[in-house]
Hints:
Shape: elongated
Number of domains: 2
Helix content: 10-25%
CATH architecture of the largest domain: Distorted Sandwich
Amino acid sequence: MPQTSYLKHFALEQSDMRIPLAREGYPFILASIFVTIIIWSLGMRGLSYISFGITIFIVSFFRDPERQIPSRDDSIVSPADGKIIIAQKVTEDRIGDRFKICPQETIKISIFMNVFNVHVNRVPASGKVLGVFYNPGKFFSADKDKASLENEQNAVLIEAKNGKKFIVNQIAGLIARRIVCYTKQGNIVEKGKRFGMIRFGSRLDVYLPVDCKIKVALGDKVRAGSSILAYW
């Protein structure tokens, strides 16, 4: 292969390669590495080991592995890694009522993410973003019921390809202090693709039409983009 062709081929291969870390993590990772090097250079070995351990934790927190997305068009996938803490029909929830995705009741599925879970969020089903609604709030533990009502949160309203509407609500937790959302009103989103993340422990609530078939139960462990929450 001529050298120019080889270099072009190599460049194309490199463009397809992806470091499995969320880009929001780079400042934290680099800062932690820098501090560790400084501490080590000052001869404080014990403290440098602790700093190195913190660096490993930060790298682990911002990991962003690829996922196998279910191919069935009627599948609705989990937007987050974590544990199912709510999976039921609700009638009184403020978010569901506000966006009126169902006249009387809706299905609410809540996923709690601890600090050891992957925190990159993915789109549950393909469609068009009708709106993104940020609400400042408090920072209760994300596994508590009142977190859905009082914590800082960011709701993304999406109309699926079948015309049905659903909501993905990012909720900050006791430790989380930063909700990141890449998408905005009018965007076309694809099932399983990344749309945001929440830093350092949090929760996601998904609101679906009441005629969806729930495929998860309390206590189930799910993975963003690959675990099926429900079917249309």
